[in-house]
Write the C-alpha cells for this entry.
Amino acid sequence: MSELFNIKIKGDKVIWMMVCALSIISLLVVYSSTGTLAYKFQSGNTEYYLIKHAFILIFGLTLMYATHKIKYTYFSGISIIAIIIAIPLLALTLLKGSNLNEASRWLSVPGTSLTFQTSDFAKLALIMYVSRVLSHKQDKITSFKEAFIPVVIPVIIVCGLILPANFSTAAVLFVTCFVMMFIGRISYKHLGALLGAGIIAGLLILSVGKYAPKVFPRFGTWMKRIENFSSNDKDNKGNFQVEQSKIAIATGGVLGKGPGNSSQRNFLPHPYSDFIYAVIIEEYGLFFGVLIVLLYLILLFRGTKIATQSPRMFGSLLAFGCAFSLTFQAMINMAVATNLFPVTGQPLPMLSMGGTSIWFTSIGIGVILSVSVGVKSELEKNKTQALEKEVELA
C-alpha cells in the first residue's frame, strides 16, 4: 500500500494527510449540521446533503491530484490566461451576477443550474500572476515603473472588482498580495505608499457609502457588522448569530457533546458553512477545535518550508501565497465564530459545505503540492550534478 501511495501520489505527504483529515471531519460535521436544511428542502432526507458534499469533496480531491501532477513552472504561463479571464468575469458578475443580500457574487453556468463564485477563481489567478511578475522583475525590483506598477495594477483592479459585493474576500486577497510583495522585495517606500493609498481609499469608500449608498449597496451591512461587533448588547438582533455561536462553543466544553449532538445547529445561521467551527467545538470539544487550528498552521508551515526550499522565486512565492491565503481565510472564519472578529462570509477551507469554493481551494492546495514535487526534483537534480562534478574532479 505504501509503495502504491509513493508511486501514485507525489508532493508533501504531510499536506496530503492534513487534507484527508479535514475532508473526513468535513463529512462528519456537514452531515450533522445540515439536518435543518434536509427537513426544510429535502423532506427529511438527511443523506442528501451528505452524498452531495461527499461528491464535491471527491471531485475536489481529484482536481487536487490532477493539479499536483502539473509542473509548477507551467502555472507562470497559465496565470496570464487566468488573469485575462478573471477580470472580465468579475466585471460581468458585478453587472449581471446572481444577487443575494445586495451582493452579486455568483455567475450561472449557461445551460445548467450551476453557479460559481468568480472571486474564488480570481483569487487563485491573481496569486499566480503576482508570483510570476515578482519573479520576473527581480533584477528591477526596486523600480517604481518597472516592478511596482506592473504588480500593483492587477491587484487593485481585481480587489476593486471584488470589493463592492465581498469586502472580506477583497481584504484577504489584498493582504495576501501585500505580503507576497513584501517577500518579493518590493521597495518599502512603495509598500508604504500603497498602504497610504489604501487608507485614503478606505476613507473615500466610507464617505461615498455614507452619502451615496447606491454606489456601495453593501456599505450598510459592513457598518452594522462592525457596530454589532463593538456592541455587547445581547438583545441586539445583529448579534444573534454570534451569541448562538458562543453558546455552542461554551456548551461544547473540553470534550464536546459527541458527534451529531449539537443543539445550536438548529439556531445558528449557516452552521454548515460560516459557523461550522462553532458546531465542531460543540460536538467534539475544545481539544478538537485546537486541532483544527493546528492543521491550518501546519499547512502554512509546510507551504513556507516548500517556499524556502524552492530554488526558483516563482515557486517560492506561489507556494507561500496559496498557503498564506488559505490559512488567513481559515483564521478569519474561526475568529468570527469565537467573536474575535466582525462577521464575514468567509467559509472554512476544506471544511465548510460548498461547491466551487471547495474545488478552487483544492486546486490551490494542488498548486502547493505541485511546487513541492518540483522542489524535490530540482534538489535531487542539483545533488546529482554536484556528485558528478566531485567525481570528475577526483
